[in-house]
Amino acid sequence: MNAHSLARFPNGVYSRAAPIRSQQSKENSIGVAIEGHNLNFSFASRQAKAVPILRDCSLRIPCGQFWMLLGPNGCGKSTLLKILAGLLNPTSGTLYVKVPKTFVFQNPDHQVVMPTVEADVAFGLGKFNLTRDEVRSRVSRALQAVGMSEYMQRSVQTLSGGQKQRVAIAGALAEACKVLLMDELTTFLDESDQVGVIKAVRNSVYTSSADVTALWVTHRLEELEYADGAIYMEDGKVVKHGDATSIRSFIEASFSPEGIRSGKVKQPKNLLVSSCIQMKELHHFPLVKNM
Question: Phi/psi at 28 (nearest 5 deg)?
Fold first, then answer.
């Protein structure tokens, strides 16, 4: 787990975002892992004009759940995730994210730096002044949570992309991270690895005694099968926020051919969700089975 792939933040609390610097307080909402109100983000163009990326985005994610953030390419979901991680400062709005938190990037080859799985998962534990037995215990529990216990002594170079992602997630769990922020982890993976990583994240959330919460950015509609809740974005705005079943029903209804022909909704652009719905009509929609 290197500095380019995993960013961990031990001191994040409530902050009122400002263009340059955010103010902080120690308030918290009981049972809430992530909460944002009226978040905006923009950047200055070459003509010195403000280009809005996020517009009044509000969201609330409970502790101990697995949520997904999805929408068309360019809708702002990765930008929003980076703001939640503290990698970007919003232009305005209020934000709380439980700590410690971890950001896991897309490319599985950037997730590991140590020669073996065990050493890599233990890599970040040196700062905690733990005994060897405590380190081994944390590593063992973390690998068990992501289904990688039998790979403990394996060289990381022999792992598949999905297995590397699971090792990266195990490293975050070993450090007792409360919030996992993941940006399209299945982008570079084959189908079997995709399912393995999703199951690993879901299992990590459901089996943890520490109320781990996960937010997963995706544009794959079928991945909602594994989520407790979801947030759907378009054009820099949060359009729909709720349980995964209602979000999926909303997307399918909105972007059905009937909905588009009726003029009630616009034809989506660059949206894999839309292509999946079209594939479903041709009886080729690749739904992931429940666990």
Answer: -155, 150
Q: Under 8 Å CB-to-CB from 170, ≥6 apart: which residues?
A: 121, 139, 142, 143, 145, 146, 148
Q: How crowded is residue 157: how many other Cβ atoms within 10 Å of its Cβ?
A: 10
- Percent of the chain past pLDDT 70, that is, above it, reads 77
CA-wise closest residue to 93 among 83, 79, 103: 83
**Residue 133 pLDDT > 70:** yes
Question: How does the average pLDDT of the chain come out, rounded?
Answer: 80
Contact 9, 114 (CB under 8 A): no
**Contacts with 113 (C-beta within 8 Å, 6 or more apart), sequence order:** 1, 2, 120, 123
pLDDT at residue 270 is higher than 90: no
Q: Which residue has the higher pLDDT, 283 or 208?
A: 208
CA 48 – CA 31 distance, rounded (Å): 42
Q: Which of 188, 222, 239 is nearest to 58 (CA)?
A: 239
Q: For 225, left (φ over 0), alpha (ψ -120 to 50), or beta?
A: alpha
**Which pLDDT band, with edges at 50, 70 and 90, does 40 fall under?**
very high
- Give yes or no for residue 5 having a pLDDT over 60: no
Question: Do 143 and 170 form a contact (C-beta atoms < 8 A)?
Answer: yes
pLDDT for 33 equals 97
**Secondary structure of residue 49 in the 3-state scheme:** coil
What CATH architecture applies to the domain 6-281?
A: 3-Layer(aba) Sandwich (3.40)
Q: State whether residue 81 is helix, strand or coil.
A: helix
Cα angle: 176, vertex 180, 181; to 5 degrees: 150
Please name the residue that has the structure tokens 């509609």. Answer: 221
Name, in order, each residue with C-beta under 8 angstroms of 27's C-beta and a sequence gap of 6 or more: 13, 14, 96
Among residues 143, 215, 230, 138, which one has the least CA distance to residue 182? 215
